[in-house]
Amino acid sequence: MFDWNNSYSVQIGSIDAQHQTLFRIAAELHSAMANGQGKTAVARTLDRLIQYVSMHFSHEERLMRLHGYPDFAAHKAEHDALTKQVVQFQQEFQAGRAIVTVQLLRFLKEWLQNHIQGSDQKYAPFLREKAVA
Ligand code: FE2
Ligand code: FE2
Predict the structure, then answer these.
(1) Most CB within 10 Å of its CB: which of 15, 16, 33, 44?
(2) Ligand 2 center–CA 46 separation, angstroms
(3) How much distance in Å is there from the Cα of 127 to the middle of ligand 2?
C-alpha cells in the first residue's frame, strides 16, 4: 500500500530521502493495524509519523522561503491543512473516539500521492535550478 517508486522522485536527494521515510512509517502504521497490534503501538507509530511529517514540512518550507519560491504561501497552506487533519485524527484516536481504520490509511495514501506528485513536483524544477540537493 505504501511503496515508494520513482514516480515520486523530485530529484532532490534530501527530499526524496524524507519522502521515502514517510512511506516507511506509513507502512509501519499499516502493519501495526493489520497485525492487530495494541493501541499503544499504533499510537506510537502515529506519533512518529506526525513528528516526521512536521520535520519534513519545515524542511521544504525552509528551502522554499530561502529561495523565494513564488507559490510558497499556497504550498504552506496545503501543509497546514494536512497537518491539521492528521492531528485531529490523532486526538480522536487518543480520546478513544476513533480507531486506526482503512479510511485513515487511504487518506494518508492519497495525501502522500497527491501532494508529492502534485505540489511537491511543482516546486522541484524551481529548487533544482537553485542547486538544492
Ligand atoms: Fe513533501
Ligand atoms: Fe510539500
Answers:
(1) 15
(2) 19
(3) 12
Contact predicate 127/7, CB 8 Å: no
Backbone angles phi and psi of 10, in degrees to 5: -100, 5
In a domain, 4, yes or no: no
Ligand 2 centre from 75 Cα, in Å? Answer: 6
- d(CA 15, ligand 1 centre) in Å: 7
| Domain hosting residue 35, numbered range | 11-129
> What is the per-residue pLDDT across 32-61, written as a single tens digit (0 to 9) for each?
888 888 888 889 999 999 999 999 999 999
CA angle 91, 97, 56 (to 5 degrees): 30
pTM confidence score: 0.93
Ligand nearest to the CA of 18: 1
